[in-house]
Specification:
This protein is of the alpha+beta class. It is built from 3 helices and 9 strands, in the order βαβββββββααβ. It has helices at about 25-40, 135-145, 155-170; strands at about 5, 45, 55-60, 75-85, 95, 105-110, 115-120, 125-130, 180. The longest helix has 15 residues, at about 155-170. It is globular. The protein binds nickel (II) ion. Nickel (II) ion binds near residues 101 and 145.
């Protein structure tokens, strides 16, 4: 089932997400729905807050980017209750990013090159793996969503001024995109 994607400005994107217990109702269905929603909207990652749930889950599939970023070739994961550790052995990298909650926008973002992720898969098996390059970037972007952060929070002051109008329009639900969205509730 394709779920509506909550837009920038919706308060659920600003909550700190909570850990998921292994008796969470219909967890596998939720993860299937998140993958389906991500593929339908041509995304490479989707975090639970983006479908209105402030819980510690994200899904990623970077395989479509493998030609440009070989490190993304087999990057398909359902990630539950992750912990992320930065490995400080490379200079930060700046690259363009976008987000399904901010349609029509992309901006350069500085990210760590190398991380280590601990997480549970959908069967609650533990995993630990290191990631570099664009794989590391996708994971950092999705992990940010679980902290209530979006990538434009990392955009520097002057760029942020330049995109202010676009951000305000997204927050008001003034977007054009091919997938279903849900805008912030109107404040009177
Ligand atoms: Ni995003």
């Amino acid at each position: 089932m394709i779920l509506p994607i909550y837009l920038y400005g919706h308060p659920v994107l600003r909550k700190e997400a909570e850990d998921v217990e292994n008796d969470y109702p219909e967890l596998k269905k939720l993860i299937d729905d998140m993958f389906e929603t991500m593929y339908h909207s041509d995304g490479v990652g989707l975090a639970a807050p983006q479908v209105g749930l402030p819980i510690n889950i994200f899904v990623i599939d970077g395989s479509v980017l493998a030609d440009k970023f070989p490190e993304c070739k087999d990057l398909k994961l359902a990630v539950i209750n992750p912990e992320l550790e930065v490995i400080e052995d490379g200079a930060p990298v700046i690259r363009e990013e976008g987000c399904l909650s901010l349609p029509g926008l992309s901006e350069p973002v500085k990210r760590h090159e190398h991380i280590k992720l601990n997480w549970l898969d959908e069967d609650f098996n533990e995993h630990e793996q290191e990631f570099t390059g664009f794989a590391s970037r996708i994971i950092q972007h999705e992990f940010d969503h679980l902290l209530g952060t979006v990538y434009t929070d990392h955009v520097s002051g002057i760029r942020k001024q330049m995109i202010r109008t676009k951000l305000n329009n997204i927050a008001k639900g003034k977007v054009r995109c091919e997938y279903r969205t849900k805008a912030a509730p109107k404040i009177n």
